[in-house]
Amino acid sequence: MYGNQKAYVASSLSGDDMISSLMYDFAVKDSKCDHLCGVPYTALPIATLLSVKSKIPMLMRRKETKSYGTKKTIEGHYKAGQSCLIIEDVVTSGSSVLETVKDLKAEGLVIEDVIVILDREQGGSQNIDSNGMKLKSLYTMTQLINILLRKGEITKEMADDVRHYLSTTKAPVIKDHSLTMDRIKMSYEKRAELAQNPITKQLLNIMATKRTNLCLSADLTSTTKILSLLENVGEHVCMVKTHIDIIEDFNDDFLVQLKHLADKFNFLILEDRKFADIGNTVSLQYLKGMYKVAEWADMVTVHSLPGEGILKAFTGSINGVSRGVFLLAEMSSQGNLISAEYTKATIDMADKYSDLVTGFVCQNGEHIKNPAFIQLTPGVQLINAEDDFGQVYNTPETVVLEKGADVAVVGRGIVAAKNPESQAVIYKEALWECYVKRISNT
Ligand code: 5IU
């Protein structure tokens, strides 16, 4: 029945040219999109005609990646951050649309609208909607049946039959978190292109070139122990997290050595100070005192609790060098008092400060959609566990694949190991493998 119906619709609407004219008036001519992309393969002629008519460049998605050459899935000239309108002929479940969108989003393209000639009203519209886009249909199946009935092209029995079939045969519900979290399927390189904060850009590029998304939490109290740990582990990490105020023999030379190692091994330094006071006090804590955090830390952790005034304490470069802030959106400790609303409000707070905020410290990054923000997740060990103070550990698979971590923080999992270097390699490889799996097309 379905093949016949489709052929009937196509012939009654007299050709691609007429349909593309209708589609153009319906949804393309007022669109501000940078690109069009037809869902392969049957929508390609319509998308081509619409591209010619509207002069909006077309992108092509390859369903099969080439085994030679560039292996690109998306052909065309585009930049991450540009928008793309999806063109489809018929939507049933929406799964083909979603597959195409996934590949486009992995390239950093922004997809908000999908236009279709015919919505069969079997759940496709809901699936597209619940995955973060809007479906606009030129015709619904109900409208089409009514037109055909009115024109005497089909009998009432046939119309009832088709209506019955459509209302009883619903497509499965599709909910793919990677589609609403744009960053999840994107490579670190692509996200570096989108980042506005130079430190975020640098961090993402370090991760991509060193092939590591491991941050070492160097929670030791002696400067010599920290420096010797970093001498062994530095080449395996993208970032080192410090708690400068736990060091017992702190001296300025330590900072010189720390910076030297950061340059030698190409990692960034995050001081996990968790600033939490009013902006003025925080500014003094950041710039003054014996640790002079602003002078050596590329990034700091900051509580959102006092409100956005706290962020103003970190705005502007220090000695001409940009800095980054990780806002605390969640904690890994059992029974902490952070609520879902607090987490969401923290993520919303960063929107206006994307030139300063590098990302969020959190456990579950479902609300972090912007690919220019990094999800930093502490509480990571090779097996699920807890320490005596309520710290909760998740595995690399859980944090990267299920909870969306971009960088995983490992402290005692490495620091307390007999051989920290070989343990760091184990973490690095496990975390990187999860990331590669996450961004792959499967
Ligand atoms: N840290 C957490 N959980 C959090 C936040 C920070 O563990 O929610 I915010 C810090 C504390 C410690 C490191 O410095 O991350 C984790 O160390 P272990 O892997 O040794 O637990």
TrEMBL record:
Q: List the catalytic activities from the record.
A: orotidine 5'-phosphate + H(+) = UMP + CO2
Q: Name one Pfam family in it.
A: Pribosyltran
Lyase found in the keyword field: yes
Q: What is its EC number?
A: 4.1.1.23
Q: Which GO terms describe its biological process?
A: 'de novo' pyrimidine nucleobase biosynthetic process; 'de novo' UMP biosynthetic process
Q: Which UniProt keywords apply?
A: Decarboxylase, Lyase, Pyrimidine biosynthesis
Family named by the database record = In the C-terminal section; belongs to the OMP decarboxylase family. In the N-terminal section; belongs to the purine/pyrimidine phosphoribosyltransferase family.
Q: What is this protein called?
A: Orotidine 5'-phosphate decarboxylase
